[in-house]
Structure prediction request, 515 residues.
Amino acid sequence: MSRLFGLSVIFGILMAMAGCAGPQVQRYDVAVYGGTAGGAVAAVAAAREGVRVVLLEPRRHVGGMVSGGLGQTDYGNQAVIGGMSREFFERVGKHYGQPVAWHFEPHVAEQVFNDWLKEANVPVLFEQRLDRVEMDGNRIRAIRMENGASYAARVFIDATYEGDLMARAGVSYTVGREGRSQYDESLAGVQEGSQYHQFDAPVSGRDEKGRLLPGVYAGEKGEPGDGDRKVQAYNFRVCLSSREGNKLPLPKPPGYDPRRYEILKRYFALRGQDLQMNDIMIFSRMPNDKTDINNRGPLSTDHIGANWDYPEANNRRREEIWRDHVDYVQGFFYFLAHDPCVPKHLQDEINRWGLAKDEYPDNGHWSHQLYVREARRMVGEYVMTQRDVQEDRSKTDSIGMGSYNIDSHHVQRVIRADGTLENEGDVEVPTKPYEIPYRILVPKDEQCPNLLVPVCVSASHIAYGSLRMEPQYMVMGQTSGVAAAEAVRGSTAVQSVDVSRLRDRLRALGQILSR
Prediction:
């Protein structure tokens, strides 16, 4: 017995010593955190430049919204989309026997990203959720995950929609809407009136007892032009199928309560017989009898006001918000399919569709990606603003181009003095093609010399409304990957990368840098 006890003590000491040593650190030249489209492209671009790269994804899929249901590409002017961004759409086109395809099925997009990463020999590690960032002064030394894994690199790229690595590295950022005066933006802040996705009938915002209906904000709207920390609405882009044998019933979410959609019921009572399906959702057709469904109208798939906590919430709270959005959007479709208040012609139409059986098989055939349209935004040495996308559209350090409208979804649903409802926050203003400066991808000089940020870039809410499109994330992702390789080879800060040389390399890779 004593011998066994002695062996147990020795074993315990050895295990404790192993624990003190901590997890083995995996070392790379470049570590990309976030398997969004921008992150996948950044990893492949860096690997093509000859450096050792790892792609770390907090969940289980790559491609972000591009493989998460956003098949109706927000491309703006197609002529300004070059480089690997263009290559992606050409690869998708090859799948469909076309030169280029801007509309596609989710699983096709994910396969393109997976093939790219495999060809470039980039290891992709899933369920790697950031726990903490280890700094050496203002430089990131390593990042540790909740599962205990640790990754060191010479350069890091934060390609998440949330900007968690950026924030934990001490980089300046903001959340919400600037006021008009901050950057002299005429479109900034609270909107006096929003034309689109608005109530075109007087819908009361209170029940019979005077209580606010679900989805109505109890606070103040704010004065026109005021800034706030409220965030434009999130949703899911929904892939349905009408093909017999490939459609599943629209799910009834746990705890479904039709009273959650009382506003829509009241709207139908006023307008229902005049409405078509495209009045209450954007019903875009995708190949093989599928859809990419997006928000449209006064109450649709956008879960307005339910996401304000998300950008800075901890992981547990984010999962609650994520699950609430799943329940809300699934409940919206279940309501349309089954509630007796829904006009028959709309109900008959929605019941032609079901979840696509061959999409998202490991996630209940529901998208794996919440549409996080905007979360944190970096505040770097240069902040791109409304002027940069409308007037001052040329940049000496341009690394790519954008062209999509300034586009923000509604931020809040409020009640007017007369008791009727108003949606607030939508901004839809055309732009012309503009150049994207390298400076918006890097933190301030003194903050972090080995971090690039191609998604939560340094931009105002208004400018981000145009920059936040997936083709531009891929443009900025490729730039970040190439710049990271340049920084590694030159042993220099990302802020000190030779931009002229970087631009030459991007041109050689087919990127469109100017008008």
The first strand starts at residue 25 and ends at 33. Residues 315-338 form the longest helix (24 residues).
